[in-house]
Structures are given as C-alpha cells and as structure tokens.
Design brief:
Length: 334
C-alpha cells in the first residue's frame, strides 16, 4: 500500500476544512451578530459585505466532505452515524441561511422572518460544527470498523461547550470582518462586539486546553511528555501573543489586523486539534491508514482533485480581490 497517499489526502481535507472554517466562518459570524444590529439599514450593510462571497465559501465544505467519503470511506461510515443529527442540523442551518439570504432582499412584509431565519440558521450551523469538533476530540465508540455508540453519544457537556465556543469564534471573525469592510455605525458596533467575542474565545480556549488533557490521558501524554513538550510548547505561547496583539489593535482602532489575528487564532486552535489527534482520523482507535480506501481509488480521485484545486484557489483569490474595499451604507450588490 502506498503509505503516502493517505497523508496527501489528509492534507487536502485538512486544508479544505481550514479554508471553510475561515471563509464561511466570518459570514456565519455576521449571521450570529445579525440580531444585535439596531437598524434595517445596518443589516443590509452587513449582508452586503458577504454577498459576493458566501456561496463560494461553502465550496470548501463540499470538498472536505466529498474527500472524506472518497479517500477514507471507513472513517466516513463511522463518523456519519456518530454525528448524524448534528450534521443534519448543520446542513439544515446552512440551507436556511442560504435561502433567507436570497429571499430577504425581495421580502417586503416578511423581512423580519428572513432576518430571524438568517440569524438562526447561522447560529445553529456554527453550534453544530462546534459539537462535531468536540466529538472528534472526545472520540467515538468503535467496534472493529463500525460505529458502536448511540445516536446521542455526541450530547455531552464538553461537546455542547465546544458548540458555544464555535459560536464565539465565528462571532469574532464576523465582527473583525465588519470592522475591515464597513464604515460608520456598523464598524463601531463591530469593534465593541469583537472585543467581547475575543474575551469569550480566550475563555473557551483556556477551558478546552485544561479540560481535554484532564479528561483524556492520550491527549495529556501527547502534549506533556518529553520530547513532545519541547516541540509543542510554542503553540500556546504563540496563541497568547496573537491574543495580546488582537486586543492591542482593537484598542488602537486598527481596521484590518484584528481580522487576521482572529484567523491566526483559529489556525492555532486547529493546529492544537491536529496535534492532539493525528494520526487518528477516528479518535482514538483508527488512523488515516486504517480507514483509507484502496490506493487505486485514492489515486484516481486525487488526479481530479489536484486539477480542481488551483481553480478553487484562483477563484477565491480573484473574487476577494475584485470586491475588495469597504461597503458604505446604501451600497451593495443587489
């Protein structure tokens, strides 16, 4: 078996998930912040900042999910039953968010309903993504190569806390995006919201960092035994530095750097998740090699993926470059 193919696929899927979390994270964050806008004009301005991007951002989720099915069918067959309800609710939230995005612009008497649908769909999708991440950290029950747990094993205090943490993280991304892309009252409100969200994110990161090694000896061993500790201690240190810089630039009124700091915080959390679990794709028992498809299937799918990858990245860079700059009140793409 070509040992390197599962590693390549793990990198592809990991990159796709990271791109989705960052790119779709800020427009989910805007939905989470939607109820706190004071005027309808502010909500219009908020939605216009993501109007050219939001549907393209979700392409990365499709790539990650399809890649898991094609390259790691055993993992897919275990993880889907384990998180069937959270995944279903997440997808329903994304559908509701997408539908409300389009209908809100043409609604006259029912705009309040679509505002609620946009905020609710975004919040549910974010919460369920956090629950799934928490479930991946906690691990799932496996017997052989089949899921051996129940339909509600994901419903634990730790996983629910991770759901709230994801809401806070996406709110931080959304608020810092609005700071960078808007002017006037929306930007002022976003700066205050970003500060509150940053404190919430740091609180949840601290709780997760303490909870996981105490609850899971395998994670404690990964982080705190030698020589691992010598390699991994920069992760919490760099996270602390980024947090201080984000707080500093929020206080100084910088419009752009807090957004990139928020992205960096997500990547640091993501790297911590990888460090805690790799090479297990179904923690804590099955690795990327044990869950991989046959090499011929991996190679065949990889050829198409490597062809599409530059197109996806090129489109993403192009669209963000074309629609760069701030959105002022009254401006938009509808």
């Amino acid at each position: 078996m070509e040992w390197y193919l599962p590693l390549i696929w793990a990198l592809v899927i990991g990159f796709a998930v990271a791109m989705y979390v960052v790119l779709d994270g800020f427009d989910l964050g805007i939905g989470i912040l939607f109820p706190f806008a004071k005027e309808e004009a502010e909500r219009d301005q908020m939605m216009n900042t993501v109007a050219p991007f939001w549907d393209g951002n979700e392409t990365w989720l499709v790539l990650g999910g399809a890649g898991l099915l094609v390259a790691f069918p055993v993992a897919y067959a275990i993880l889907m039953p384990a998180f069937y309800l959270p995944v279903t609710l997440m997808l329903l939230g994304l559908v509701l968010r997408g539908v409300s995005f389009e209908f809100r612009w043409i609604a006259k008497t029912s705009k309040y309903f679509w505002n609620f649908a946009f905020a609710g769909g975004s919040t549910v999708a974010a919460f369920m993504q956090g629950v799934i991440v928490g479930g991946m950290v906690s691990g799932v029950k496996v017997q052989g190569t089949q899921y051996a747990g129940g339909g509600f094993d994901w419903l634990t205090p730790f996983n629910l806390m991770c759901g709230l943490a994801m809401i806070a993280g996406y709110a931080l991304l959304g608020a810092t995006w609005l700071m960078m892309k808007t002017e006037g009252e929306v930007a002022k409100h976003a700066r205050r919201q970003a500060t509150i969200a940053l404190y919430a994110v740091l609180f949840f990161m601290a709780v997760v960092s303490l909870w996981t090694p105490l609850a899971h000896p395998r994670i404690a061993e990964r982080w705190f035994t030698l020589p691992n500790f010598l390699f991994f201690w920069p992760v919490p240190f760099v996270t602390a530095v980024i947090s201080v810089l984000c707080w500093h630039w929020l206080r100084k009124g910088n419009d752009t750097m807090p957004f990139f700091c928020a992205i960096a915080l997500f990547f640091m959390g993501y790297s911590g998740l990888v460090i805690s679990n790799f090479p297990y794709l179904v923690p804590p028992v099955l690795t990327v090699w044990q869950t991989a498809a046959v090499p011929a299937s991996q190679l065949f799918a990889l050829m198409g993926t490597l062809f599409m990858f530059p197109i996806l990245i090129g489109y993403t860079v192009f669209i963000y470059w074309i629609f760069r700059g701030k959105i002022r009140e009254g401006e938009g793409y509808h």
